[in-house]
Amino acid sequence: MHSNPNSDFPAIKRLFGISGCVAMVTGGRRGLGLAMSEGLASAGAKLACIDIADECNELRNRVEAHGTELAYFQADLADRSQRNGLVDRVVERFGRLDILVNCAGIQHRQPAMEFDLERWDTIISLMLTAVFELSQQAARVMERQGGGKIINIASLCSFQGGWTIPAYTAVKSGVAGLTKALANEWAVKNIHVNAIAPGYFDTEMCAAIINDPVREPKIRERIPAGRWGKPEELVGPLLFLASDASNYVDGHVLLVDGGWMGR
Fold first, then answer.
1. What pLDDT does residue 6 have?
2. Where do the H-state alpha helices sit in 101-222?
3. Cβ–Cβ < 8 Å for 194, 246
4. How far apart (Å, rounded) are the C-alpha atoms in residues 139 and 178?
5. How confident is residue 135, by pLDDT bands cut at 50, 70 and 90?
6. Is 160 in contact with 217 (CB distance < 8 Å)?
7. How far apart are the first and last CA of the chain?
8. Can you tell me the mean pLDDT for 211-215?
9. Whole-model pTM?
10. pLDDT at 4 over 70
11. What per-residue string of b and e applies to 62-87 under the rule 16 or more CB within 10 Å gives b?
């Protein structure tokens, strides 16, 4: 036993530290993305956020309250022409890229027999193809730098079928598989690709279910934790995967679900 129980504390702080790193977050303007953006900023990272909206007032206020920098890029990530060169723009602004968080997403609920095919195409492009393209762009930069972290946002629907959300389930299953495929190729390059799979979180995207007097109690009762997640509860898992603490973690899909999948 160490004579001083606190002797290793500075090393632990460095292990989980990302101060001065440059992080790029897609869909970081609201919901889970906003919480993760603020979490990265609170840990001292410089932040580049890509979102479809032309304003980011709440995001900017939250990030700047932590004394760090924000570069905001407006882009429709469902459009390949707007995805091209995004990572280069971030590198041009900050000089490097250390962390990529692929979070951008939308939801459309419709029975599979009637599911709108244009909506299908948009969801696949935004939530799966864009994840691959931006990861590819980021990996090229990270390889030159000597390494980096890519964190994809998966879902319970990476493991389960969901209900009347076939496109969402398809992309989230794809994200889990893509995470493992990229990790297989890039771990040796010190590029660590992992995913977080959130369970039921109290966000705008889930508002319809939260406000449903029939479905909400059934869902909550099935969660061993007995409650919905809070967006800020993703920050700890995110910082673990974004920092040196996870340097031998590759291709993992980390459930943050209050125990849902273990039930």
1. 54
2. 117-124, 130-145, 166-186, 207-210, 215-222
3. yes
4. 14
5. very high
6. no
7. 39
8. 87
9. 0.94
10. no
11. bbeebebebbbbebbbbeeebbeebb
Known active-site residue 200: no
Is 4 domain-assigned?
no
Domain that holds residue 114: 10-262
**Taking residues 64-82, what's their average pLDDT?**
96
Is residue 149 one of the residues assigned to a domain? Answer: yes
* pLDDT value at 246 more than 70: yes
Q: What does the alpha-carbon distance between residue 185 and residue 211 come to, in Å, rounded to a whole number?
A: 43
Number of domains composing the chain: 1
CB atoms < 10 A from the CB of 96, how many?
15
Note whether 81 and 90 are within 8 A (CB): no
Is position 36 within any domain? yes
Structure-token pair, residue 217: 């109690």
Q: What is the mean pLDDT of the chain?
A: 94
Q: CB neighbours (10 Å) of residue 230?
A: 12
List the CATH number of the domain containing 140. 3.40.50.720
**Do the domain assignments include residue 138?**
yes
Residue tagged active-site, from 72, 168, 200, 248: 168
